[in-house]
Automatic annotation (TrEMBL):
It comes from the Bacteria. It comes from Novosphingobium capsulatum. It holds the Pfam family DPRP. InterPro entries: Crypto/Photolyase_FAD-like_sf (IPR036134), PhrB-like (IPR007357), Rossmann-like_a/b/a_fold (IPR014729), UV-DNA_repair_photolyase (IPR052551). This is Deoxyribodipyrimidine photolyase-related protein. Gene3D superfamilies: 1.25.40.80, Deoxyribodipyrimidine photolyase-related (1.10.10.1710), DNA Cyclobutane Dipyrimidine Photolyase, subunit A, domain 3 (1.10.579.10), HUPs (3.40.50.620).
Length: 519
C-alpha cells in the first residue's frame, strides 16, 4: 500500500471548513482536490450566474484552504488535460499524488452518489465516504422517523428538530407558547412594505476572471451576469446575513408571502445560494435569529418563520429526497405531460406576474419563495406541465438549486406529482389569490376579476380546469371538499365555459425550444 497522502475531493457545494472529509485531516498528510468540470455544468445547462457563483466560491475556498496550510490541487475548467468529469479527474489526481486513500463527504445529489459508489471498484485505492454533517438530521435518523408513518408531515418533523437543537425552546415547551406563528405571516404588500436592499458584493479579481470565463464558455446558457453580486466567501455570507438580521428580519414573517413587481428580494434573507454551497452554517444562522427575538429586536412570528424554513423545511426536503429517490425524479401522479412553454425562458408573456418572475430570475438567478411557489409552480400545476421539464427549469435557473432541495419542492410541494406524500393538498390558486398577495394584477393586460373569455386572467379558468381534469384523483381529498362542492354546483354551461376558456389559452402556449435545459 502506498504511504502517500489522503486525497480529499471537495465538490462545488461542499465549501465548508468544518466539512466532515476535512475534519480529521492534517495539512501535512492531505491533498485537497477541487475540480471545475464540464459535465457538472451540463447535466443541466445552469444559469450563468450559478456557474459563476460556484466557480468563484470554489476558487476563494481553495485560497482559504491554502492559507491554512493545505495543499490544494485545483483543476480549472480550461486547464490542459481537464477531462471534464469528476471520475476521470479523480483518477488523474490519483496518478499525480499516489494517495493511500480517497476520502469524500457524501454528495448532495443522487446522480453524483451513483458516480462515487462506482469508484469503489474503479479507483484502485481505499475509498471512505463520510456523512454530510452540515445538516441537523442525519439521514438514518430521518429514515427512522419516516418509517411506519403513512404521511410525512413537516410540522411534526420540525418539532423534533426544535427539540434536538434547543432552538426556540423554553425547557420542553416552544418559546412564545406555540410551535407555529404562520397565521401572523400572511400580510399582502401594503404601504408599510418598503423592503431595504440586500447586500451586494462587487466582483473582486477572482470573480471577474470567472465571469469572463463563463461569458466565453457558456454564452448560450440562460441568465445574465451583468448584476452578479452574490457573496462568494464565508466572510461575505456572514456580512450579508448580519444585514438581513438588522434590516429585514423584523418584517420577514409579515411579508414572507407577499410579492411586489420589480422588488426582487422583499424581506427575504436571500442567503440560500451561500447556504447551499456551504458558506454559512444553518444552525448558527438560526441561533443568531433567535437572539434577535430574545433581545427584543425581532418579533417571534418572524424568527419562528425563519427558523422553520431552515431546520424544518430544508432538513425535511433533504430527507424526503434521499428517501424517495430515484422514483421521485420520475413521479407524475397527475399524469401531467405538457411541455414547458417558451416564455418560461424568455419572459415574453402578457401575464404580468409570470413575466416579472422570469425577469427577476434571468437577472439574479433568484426569485423568492412565493414567486417560485404561487406564480411559477402554481402555473405549472394548473397548466399540467411535465414535472420533469419543470424540475429541470428550477434546477437550471436558481443559484441555490441542487437536486436534493429542488426536486422535492417541485415534484412534491408545487406539482403534487408524488401523489400527496409531501403536501396535504395541491398548491392550486386562482388569480384572486395572486392579486391578494401582490401588486401584479393592476398592470396586467389580463383582468383578474374576469373569469372566462378574452382578457380574463388565465389563472382563473386554469384553476377550475385543473380541478375538473383531476376530479377522479383529487375529489376524495378532504381539503379540496369546498372547491369541488363549488364546481359541482355550477351549471353545465358555466363549467363548459371555464373548460373552453382554459383550452383556448393552453392552445396558445408555444413549447420551449430544445436545448435550454439540456444539450
Ligand atoms: C453545480 C456545479 C457546477 C455547475 N459545477 C461544478 C464543478 O465544476 N465542480 C464541482 O465540484 N461542482 C460543481 N457543481 C456542483 C456539483 O454539481 C455538486 O457537487 C453536485 O450537484 C452534488 O450536489
Ligand atoms: Fe397574473 Fe392574472 Fe394577475 Fe395578470 S391578472 S398578474 S395573469 S394573476
Amino acid at each position: 500500500m502506498s504511504n502517500g497522502p489522503v486525497l480529499v475531493p471537495v465538490l462545488g457545494d461542499q465549501l465548508s471548513h468544518g466539512l466532515s472529509s476535512l475534519a480529521d485531516r492534517t495539512p501535512e498528510d492531505t491533498v485537497v482536490l477541487m475540480m471545475e468540470v464540464w459535465d457538472e455544468t451540463q447535466y443541466v445547462r445552469h444559469h450563468k450566474a450559478k456557474i459563476a457563483l460556484i466557480f468563484s466560491a470554489m476558487r476563494h475556498f481553495a485560497r482559504e484552504l491554502r492559507d491554512t496550510g493545505f495543499t490544494v490541487d485545483y483543476v480549472k475548467l480550461d486547464d490542459p488535460g481537464n477531462t471534464g468529469s469528476f471520475t476521470a479527474e479523480v483518477q488523474r489526481a490519483i496518478r499525480r499524488h499516489a494517495p493511500r486513500g480517497v476520502q469524500i463527504t457524501e454528495p448532495g445529489e443522487w446522480r453524483v452518489r451513483e458516480m462515487i459508489t462506482a469508484w469503489r471498484d474503479t479507483l484502485g485505492v481505499r475509498l471512505r465516504v463520510l456523512p454530510d454533517t452540515r445538516f441537523v438530521c442525519p439521514l438514518p435518523d430521518f429514515f427512522q422517523w419516516a418509517a411506519g408513518r403513512k404521511q410525512w408531515r413537516m410540522e411534526y418533523f420540525y418539532r423534533e428538530m426544535r427539540r434536538k437543537t434547543g432552538l426556540l425552546m423554553d425547557g420542553d415547551k416552544p418559546a412564545g407558547g406555540k410551535w407555529n406563528f404562520d397565521a401572523e405571516n400572511r400580510g399582502g404588500p401594503d404601504a408599510e412594505c418598503r423592503p431595504p436592499a440586500v447586500s451586494h458584493f462587487a466582483p473582486d479579481a477572482i470573480t471577474q476572471e470567472v465571469i469572463a470565463l463563463v461569458e466565453a464558455r457558456f454564452a448560450g446558457h440562460f441568465g445574465s451576469l451583468d448584476h452578479f453580486a452574490w457573496p462568494v466567501t464565508a466572510a461575505q455570507a456572514a456580512h450579508a446575513f448580519d444585514r438581513f438580521l438588522k434590516t429585514r428580519l423584523p418584517l420577514f414573517g409579515r411579508y414572507q408571502d407577499a410579492m411586489m413587481a420589480g422588488t426582487d428580494t422583499m424581506y427575504h434573507a436571500v442567503i440560500s445560494p451561500a447556504l447551499n454551497i456551504g458558506l454559512i452554517d444553518p444552525v448558527e444562522m438560526c441561533r443568531r435569529a433567535e437572539t434577535e427575538w430574545r433581545e427584543g429586536r425581532a418579533p417571534i412570528e418572524a424568527v419562528e418563520g425563519f427558523i422553520r424554513q431552515v431546520i424544518g423545511w430544508r432538513e425535511y426536503v433533504r430527507g424526503i429526497y434521499w428517501l424517495t429517490m430515484p422514483d421521485l425524479s420520475k413521479a407524475n401522479q397527475l399524469g401531467a405531460t405538457r411541455p414547458l412553454p417558451e416564455f418560461w425562458w424568455t419572459g415574453e408573456t402578457d401575464m404580468a406576474c409570470v413575466a416579472d418572475c422570469v425577469r427577476a430570475t434571468h437577472k439574479n438567478a433568484y426569485a423568492h419563495h412565493i414567486q417560485r411557489l404561487m406564480v411559477m409552480g402554481n402555473f405549472a400545476l394548473l397548466a399540467g406541465l411535465s414535472p420533469q421539464d419543470v424540475a429541470d427549469w428550477f434546477l437550471v435557473v436558481y443559484a441555490d438549486a441542487f437536486e436534493w432541495v429542488e426536486l422535492p419542492n417541485v415534484a412534491g410541494m408545487a406539482l403534487f406529482a408524488d401523489g400527496g406524500k409531501l403536501a396535504s393538498k395541491p398548491y392550486a390558486a386562482s388569480g384572486a389569490y395572486i392579486d391578494r398577495m401582490s401588486n401584479y394584477c393592476g398592470d396586467c393586460r389580463y383582468d383578474v376579476k374576469r373569469k372566462v373569455g378574452e382578457g380574463a386572467c388565465p389563472f382563473n379558468a386554469l384553476y377550475w380546469d385543473f380541478l375538473a381534469r383531476n376530479e377522479e384523483r383529487l375529489a376524495g381529498n378532504p381539503r379540496l371538499a369546498n372547491p369541488y362542492a363549488t364546481w359541482r354546483r355550477m351549471s353545465a354551461d358555466k363549467q363548459a365555459e371555464y373548460r373552453d376558456s382554459a383550452a383556448a389559452f393552453l392552445e396558445t402556449l408555444e413549447p420551449a425550444k430544445k436545448g435550454w435545459a439540456r444539450a
